[in-house]
Design a protein that fits this description.
The complex is a heterodimer of chains A (1005) and B (107). Chain A is of the alpha+beta class and 1005 residues long. Chain A is built from 24 helices and 51 strands. Helices cover 22% and strands 27% of the residues of chain A. In chain A, the strands form 13 sheets. In chain A, strands 8, 9, 12, 13, 14, 15 and 28 form a seven-stranded mixed β-sheet that branches. In chain A, strands 41-42-43-44-40-34-45 form a seven-stranded mixed β-sheet. In chain A, helix 12 (535-543) crosses helix 14 and helix 18 crosses helix 23. Chain B has 107 residues and is an alpha+beta fold. Chain B has one domain (3-29, 40-98): Folate-binding fold (2-Layer Sandwich), CATH 3.30.2270. Classes of the chains: A alpha+beta (1005), B alpha+beta (107).
Chain lengths: 1005, 107
């Protein structure tokens, strides 16, 4: 290209288009360095350089060029990168702006775009008819894993995903406005101007780099005495200058949700050669608008005929954009195939720019207005009631064969180097439909138009079926004023927008054609380019019984590619309707779903990644535990100390040492994550009577009790120790994971079922740091630090609570145990947690006590048969199943779960009950979750009578221990059961759940 | 994202401040211990799950923390009204009033 005098590419026409010839941009395509102009898209720059071949199709690997010049592009999808971490597959060449250093490469081809071995699929296409996957890969079943899936996976998908983490950042903003205008064409700008000048707050967005919409290509409309495009730029600038208006370009409204909530994605840096590191790559706008004005325009449809997919064949409007905006001629001999008047204007523009138009093939009897005469006056041959029977050209269209409509035969060959096509315009009702508005079929113009609104929105312009520019501006201004009025703006005034529609005497753009031309039985007439769906595929789907359009869509994959059928859906529907012999509205339209165009994950995720993905909750003791070598585990959002390995120690050795030390000396444990709720008020005991199975009236202040909370169905919901601090004050503890839901559950009953009770609930989980000190030496460790509390066994027996001071700070001191040893749980205000812990640990360490983590805690409690709700219970376990029926008060008239517990099924003697298991080989540790059977020789599927819920190596017992739920377990004591594993069957003996200190003597020291 | 009016805060707030809490106006018996199995089934397990206007409970959990009741249309997701827990089940707005509410739904 360097030999060419003109820098922007050989097909750039001097004096045409709106780009500046001096501003050149260098980029590469498949390794070839090319030059374009600033403002070019990849597509316009490639065509300027004579390149039409831009991709390979998904299924048949057919060579493809660009079809459109906009967001609807199905063919020209590329990988685009600026460095090794920043590359993105499936970028539409018609949307991506070029910048210095951009690297683009084609996809879905090997070894090269021009010579692709995958194209063999095209020759084998009779094998790949509609529903091919469903029919072919059914049998034999075993071939799925080994053969079908790997091969399909390799062949499937377009492009490759990046292998490095995304180095860019993304922003998210909320915005509120009176009026959100989606679309910055003639209609959108007029509406925004009218609303803004009335004083309403306005956001207007458009997906393109500049406002203007169809004014990019339609040069026949002048506004206020200047070209439509210039008026659009001036109007956008004027709007941007107003305090009550935000103008967003390169911003796609991709989703319209409930209550006028609209998602916009703004592409901030993808067009820049050197983006500032401070700029987000994209910005998500979540807009709540009082009124939404939809000015989303219309999308041109292609003609469906055999061979309609060769590079060089594109929509008439695309050719017009490339010419009028980018100054690029798509070819030198450009034929036209149309069923819509607007293609004539494209032909005339091309001819005026010096391009030869060998023929206009007109599918209809005649075009509207005086177009036929004008074309003939210009010396263009127009063949009315004709069709294109086939095309030729391997990597670019080289000729078309034209036949009279309905005729067969080879027809007349006409040499071309490009072909523009138009079957009419489909109003973009995507967002309207997403808003749950109902579309209505307009038989006269053959299109679906917005019908009944579901939300406070209004559709104007081409998306509402308004074609005439004068009527369109009138409608838009009214919509803008009305929206401003509705939002309470009182200023009045009406912008002056005078239209001079000078162009050729074009007929209505609404006239057109949906469906295929004729019924060609040979050749591939593509409906959906991206998914390679032909007219024949759709007819076949109907013949094979797909009578609903939703079934046709899924069977053929029509409209299911990344372009979501923007050009193909109406054609597919029309062909299905014709084959079914039904009118189009009776066959129905498939659902429009968000997003309108693909949205990056980065935009959706925003800042929520890495450490910001999920909050990490750390206890007040976290830093101390870390200093002392803790290994942490995640428990929900909490970081909990798991175990404290010494140098060279394995986890197993560390846990065994911690378990032994706690029972021989003592251990310190961070129990701060336990949920804590303060229940206060004159009716506090009455409230707990209703929420827990236990009776609370007789619990003396200063004493504690283990409580069980049920759901109404009688199953265990949570458990914990409850201490009574005063007659009207309880300190309730919950499981670590259960804290929020237990409070929610309590609030629910207090607010809605028992509102007569005078009780306050306060979450105090994070107000108190909790240090458990457990073991024979526990009291000796804490004694020197405790002030004003007699901690002797007589004064403070097991299951009691005192308030006083420790290390000079206030404490709620619990005498309780989750290990079976003499134990204390020291609650101190969170801010003092660290200093109290350090003081205690200094003394404890000197006494040869240890720090222990959650793993040792789990083992120690299992040695005592203490359950963990959520591990030994699973939401189908009653107190009796868990061996806790002693905790259910017999005489209470009511508590949550009392009715559920009475159900017959919950009384069955053969329910799964919690038992202990001892492996016959004491060194074997069972797997948690392993299934249990009574007869190891039973044929598969065996009768599973239970499963292992907890299983550990117990250093203190010198053997493995396990708990399990087993059908009728308590009546099976001493029985031998079996745990079948993949490599062997393990024999176990059913025991009670207490493995250590069965009499519980150690609790009292 | 839905906007929900909290009748306690008397403000419309984003859906993420709220948590859904099931069907409304299900009365817990003051004699739970005497429920027959059929009565318990109706109370605990059976729900209408209607298509259209439903009475349901929400909690302004990340706001004032109060439970409230709402009438919502499950087809359109539109909230027809919200009211305080414990208030009697309101009659549904007549269709004309509903249409008017639709017009003003962007508020």
């Amino acid at each position: 290209m360097s030999g060419n005098a003109y820098q922007g590419g050989a097909n750039r026409l001097p004096g045409k288009g709106r780009l500046t010839p001096a501003k050149t941009v260098r980029f590469s395509f498949d390794g070839r360095i090319l030059t374009g102009l600033e403002g070019d898209t990849l597509a316009s720059a490639l065509i300027a350089n004579g390149i039409h071949l831009m991709g390979r199709s998904f299924k048949y690997h057919r060579p493809r060029g660009v079809l459109s010049a906009g967001a609807e592009e199905p063919n020209a999808l590329m990988q685009v990168s600026r460095d090794s971490a920043r590359y993105q597959p499936n970028v539409r060449a018609s949307v991506q702006e070029i910048f210095d250093g951009l690297r683009a490469s084609s996809q879905n081809r090997y070894p090269s775009l021009a010579c692709d071995v995958g194209a063999v699929n095209d020759a084998l296409s009779p094998l790949f008819s509609a529903g091919f996957y469903y029919k072919t890969f059914m049998w034999p079943r075993t071939a799925w894993n080994k053969l079908y899936e790997p091969v399909i996976r390799r062949a499937a998908g377009l492009g490759e995903s990046p292998k490095e983490a995304d180095p860019d950042h993304y922003a998210q903003r909320y915005a509120h406005c009176d009026v959100l205008v989606v679309g910055g064409g003639l209609a959108g700008l007029s509406a925004a101007l009218a609303a803004a000048e009335s004083g309403a707050s306005v956001i207007i967005c458009d997906e393109q780099p500049e406002m203007g919409g169809a004014l990019h290509f339609d040069t026949s409309i002048a506004v206020n005495g200047e070209t439509g495009f210039d008026w659009a730029q001036k109007t956008a600038a004027r709007l941007a200058f107003m305090d009550n208006v935000r103008v967003l370009t390169r911003t796609t409204a991709f989703g319209y949700y409930a209550q006028n909530f609209v998602g916009l994605t703004e592409r901030v840096t993808d067009h820049l050669a050197l983006p500032s590191p401070d700029q987000p790559r994209e910005r998500l706008w979540q807009v709540r608008a009082k009124r939404v004005v939809l000015a989303t325009g219309a999308i041109e449809r292609h003609m469906v005929f055999p061979g309609n997919d060769r590079p060089g064949i594109m929509l008439a409007s695309a050719a017009r954009i490339f010419l009028n905006h980018y100054g690029v001629a798509i070819g030198a001999k450009v034929a036209v195939y149309t069923a819509c008047d607007s293609a004539y204007e494209a032909a005339f523009d091309l001819q005026d720019a010096g391009v030869r138009i060998p023929v206009i093939v007109e599918a209809r009897d005649r075009p509207g207005g005086t177009l036929l005469e004008e074309a003939r006056t210009r010396g263009i041959e127009v063949l009315t009631r004709h069709a294109i029977a086939s095309t030729k050209g391997r990597l670019r269209v080289s000729s078309i064969a034209v036949v009279p409509a309905g005729a067969s035969g080879k027809g007349r060959d006409i040499e071309v180097d490009a072909l523009i096509i138009s079957a009419g315009w489909t109003p973009s009702v995507h967002l309207f439909s997403q808003s749950r508005g109902k579309v209505a079929w307009d038989a006269e113009s053959g299109r679906f138009l917005p019908g009944v609104n579901a939300q406070d929105c209004v559709s104007i312009g081409a998306c509402a079926g308004t074609d005439d520019p004068v009527a369109l501006v009138e409608q838009a201004v009214e919509a803008g004023l009305d929206a401003a009025n509705g939002a309470g703006s009182e200023m009045s005034g009406r912008p002056v927008i005078d239209i001079d529609h000078e162009g050729s005497d074009a007929g209505s753009w609404s006239a057109g054609l949906v469906g295929a031309v004729g019924a060609p039985e040979s050749g591939k007439a593509f409906v959906d380019f991206q998914n390679d769906v032909t007219a024949k595929d759709i007819r076949l789907a109907v013949r094979e019984g797909m009578h609903s359009i939703e079934h046709v869509k899924r069977f053929t994959t029509n409209g299911m590619a990344t372009d979501q059928g923007k050009t193909s859906n109406m054609h597919g529907l029309a062909i299905a309707a014709e084959t079914l012999g039904k009118p189009i509205p009776q066959v129905g339209l498939t659902t429009f779903r968000a997003p309108y165009t693909p949205v990056t994950f980065g935009t959706i995720v925003g800042q929520s990644r890495g450490v910001l993905f999920d909050p990490a909750r750390k206890t007040p003791l976290h830093a101390c535990l870390e200093t002392n070598g803790a290994v942490f585990e995640d428990v929900g959002q909490w970081k909990r100390a798991w175990y404290f390995p010494r140098a060279g120690e394995t986890m197993h050795a560390a846990v065994s040492r911690e378990c032994r030390t706690v029972r021989e000396v003592a251990g310190l444990f961070d129990a701060s994550t336990l949920g804590k709720i303060e229940v206060v008020g004159p009716d506090a005991a009455a409230f707990l009577n209703l929420l827990y199975t236990n009776a609370w009236d007789k619990l003396e202040p200063g004493r504690c009790k283990y409580g069980i909370m049920l759901r109404e169905d009688g199953f265990i919901y949570d458990d914990g120790v409850v201490g009574r601090l005063a007659a009207d004050r309880f300190h309730v503890t919950t499981t670590t994971g259960g804290a929020p839901r237990v409070l929610h559950h309590m609030e629910d009953y207090l607010q809605t079922e028992f509102p007569h009770l005078d009780v306050w609930l306060t979450s105090i989980t994070e107000q108190w740091a909790v240090i458990a000190v457990q073991g024979p030496q526990a009291r000796d460790i804490i004694a020197p630090f405790v002030d004003g509390i007699d901690i002797s066994d007589d004064a403070m027996p097991h299951m009691s609570v005192r308030e006083g001071k420790i290390c000079g700070v206030p404490t709620r001191l619990f005498r309780m145990s989750f290990t079976g040893e003499r134990g204390f749980e020291i609650n101190v205000p969170a801010d003092y947690g660290q200093s109290v812990f350090e003081a205690l640990w200094e003394r404890a360490e000197a006494m040869d006590a240890c720090l222990y983590g959650t793993e040792a805690m789990h083992v120690l409690r299992a040695e005592k048969g203490y359950i963990i709700v959520g591990q030994d219970t699973d939401g189908t376990v009653t107190p009796d199943d868990a061996g806790l029926s002693w905790a259910v008060a017999k005489k209470k008239p009511d508590f949550v779960g009392i009715a559920g517990l009475k159900r017959a099924d919950l009384q069955r003697p053969d329910r799964k009950q919690l038992v202990g298991l001892k492996t016959k080989d004491p060194t074997l540790v069972l797997e948690e979750g392993a299934q249990i059977v009574a007869d190891p020789n039973e044929k598969i599927p065996m009768t599973m009578i239970g499963h292992v819920t907890s299983s550990y190596w117990s250093e203190n017992c010198g053997r493995s221990i396990a708990m399990a739920v087993v059908a009728g377990g308590r009546s099976r004591m001493g029985e031998t059961l079996y745990v079948p594993m993949p490599d062997r069957t393990i024999e176990v003996e059913v025991t009670d759940t207490v493995f250590f200190d069965k009499q519980g003597e150690r609790l009292n020291g | 994202m839905l906007l929900i009016r909290c009748p306690y805060c008397d403000e419309s707030r984003p859906e993420i401040e709220f948590r859904h809490a099931g069907e409304a106006h299900i009365v817990r018996s003051d004699k739970m211990a005497d429920l027959t199995p059929d009565e318990f089934e109706r109370y605990f397990f059976l729900r209408d799950n209607r298509k259209g206007d439903v009475y349901e409970r929400w909690r302004h959990i990340h706001g004032c923390g109060r439970f409230l009741n709402a009438v919502r249309n499950t087809v359109t997701d539109r909230f027809l009204m919200t009211y305080k827990a414990g208030e009697p089940r309101p009659a549904l707005p007549d269709p004309q009033a509903q249409a008017a509410a639709t017009e003003g739904n962007g508020q």
